[in-house]
Design brief:
single chain, 452 residues, Beta-Lactamase, Heat Shock Protein 90, five-stranded antiparallel β-sheet, 11 helices, rod-shaped, 2CSK_N, EC 2.7.13.3, transmembrane
Length: 452
């Protein structure tokens, strides 16, 4: 039942059914009111006509008011309900009919025409018509009063019959409207079914845009799904390329390490054995650095879309990274300097990713660039802030773009080529760039970041 309640078709039909039910109740009440009014008006015409005909048969004979009730009129009224009447002469004496039949009509109004009112007679609800007729009777006010009453059973029966017929029409129309709505909803949801079938029939690696033409109402939803699949496809392509390249890169030092171990096993204790152990140590260190950079690269790719941006002080960041990134001992003498900005630039970004990017730039400069000097500078310019790593090495043998692709490296490089790629990914994630410049003495790589 929970799946049914979550169904869009069920929800739409349920809402329409509720609306139709509420409408049927309102229409039913309106039908009952209209039917009651129509029955009242129809029987009131008969009752008014009966009162007028009785009044026309009232006359004075021998000084006495006499009435000859029209039998046909009374019979017509009696065909539907019980009929009671009373005729009172100008002296107030009842000359015909039921003496206890009482009317509350205003005498002045009855002289102008028939007055209709509701009342009760002999314990039954009745409709009363009262009319005054002027006659010539000396010594009196010359007005005779005629009262005719009719029970209301036939009125209610007619109103009930009309209401039931109207309710029947309302019920049929409501059912037809609900069926039509259900069919319309089914037709309207067919494009969703086509989209569902198209997605369900695809292979897991098929992330092409949805080909089925969506209705206007869900076009934005389908576009969002297409955009999500595009981003997922790009991420999967990056990860697949990364995994393939990483497998290739790790295979090389592992093979070299295995060869050195075999040499070590087959070599007697000698000077060559010490050299082999040294090479094994170097290969092991290289493999450790490669593994660390692989993990850093994967972390940077992951954090690009999920990390929450926070305010980062570039002076503090660069100072901390430089202190940790420079090893305690270097194979050569290198003069290391840090030049902070006068006013610390603040950027909104991921401190962890920025730290990794700068650490890789510094490590890259120390291992493959700097001969005797390394300078880390922090600055800001307009809407951008930057951290620059400069060294007195020979620079790059190719454009920087060639080195910022994963595992791209120079022909004489012994590294993995991941350091600059990590920095480039971080710069791109922070709406910045990695810029290279060279003067007569220094090679400069600048990590440019947007400040807003």
């Amino acid at each position: 039942m929970s799946d049914l309640r979550l169904s869009l078709r069920f929800r739409i039909i349920a809402v329409l059914a509720a609306v139709l039910a509420a409408g049927a109740v309102v229409l039913g009440a309106a039908a009952w009111h209209s039917s009651s009014l129509a029955a009242q008006q129809a029987y009131d015409r008969l009752l008014r006509g009966g009162a007028v005909q009785i009044a026309e048969n009232v006359y004075v004979q021998g000084g006495v008011v006499t009435v000859e009730p029209p039998v046909s009129t009374i019979a017509t009224l009696a065909d539907y309900d019980l009929v009671f009447y009373k005729v009172v002469d100008p002296r107030g004496i009842v000359v015909a009919g039921y003496e206890d039949l009482v009317s509350d009509a205003d005498p002045v109004e009855t002289r102008a025409g028939v007055v209709l009112e509701d009342g009760t007679y002999q314990g039954q609800p009745v409709r009363i018509a009262t009319l005054a007729r002027q006659i010539d009777m000396p010594g009196t006010n010359n007005w005779s009063t005629i009262v005719v009453a009719q029970t209301t059973d036939a009125r209610r029966a007619l109103a009930r019959d009309l209401t039931l017929k109207a309710l029947g029409v309302i019920a049929v129309m409501s059912v037809l409207a609900l069926l039509a709505a259900a069919y319309a909803v089914t037709l309207a949801l067919k494009p969703l079914t086509r989209i569902e079938r198209e997605i369900a029939s695809r292979r897991p690696d098929d992330l092409r845009p949805i080909e089925a033409e969506p209705p206007l109402e869900i076009r934005n939803l389908v576009q969002a799904i297409d955009d999500f699949m595009r981003r997922l496809s790009e991420r999967m392509a990056i990860m697949q390329r990364f995994i393939a390249d990483a497998a290739h890169q790790i295979r090389t030092p592992l093979a070299a390490l295995d060869a050195q171990v075999e040499i070590l096993i087959g070599t007697p204790a000698s000077r060559r054995k010490a050299d082999t152990v040294k090479r094994i140590h170097e290969r092991t260190a290289e493999l450790g650095r490669l593994t660390g950079q692989l993990l850093d690269h994967a972390m940077v790719i992951h954090r690009k879309d999920v990390a929450v941006a926070a305010a980062v002080d570039l002076n503090q960041l660069a100072k901390g990274v430089l202190a940790k990134a420079v090893p305690l001992s270097l194979p050569r003498e290198v003069d290391i300097a840090f030049v902070p900005a006068e006013q610390a630039p603040i950027v909104s970004g991921d401190a962890v990713s920025l730290r990794e990017a700068l650490s890789n730039l510094i490590d890259n400069a120390l291992r493959h660039g700097a001969r005797s000097r390394l300078v880390v500078t922090v600055g800001a310019d307009g809407d951008a802030a930057w951290i620059e790593v400069a060294d007195d090495g020979d620079g790059f043998a190719a454009p920087l773009a060639e080195f910022t692709r994963p595992f791209a490296k120079g022909p004489e490089s012994s590294g993995s080529g991941l350091g600059l790629s990590i920095a480039a990914e971080v710069a791109l994630a922070h709406k910045g760039e990695l810029a290279l410049s060279r003067d007569s003495t220094m090679t400069r790589i600048r990590l440019v970041l947007a400040r807003s």
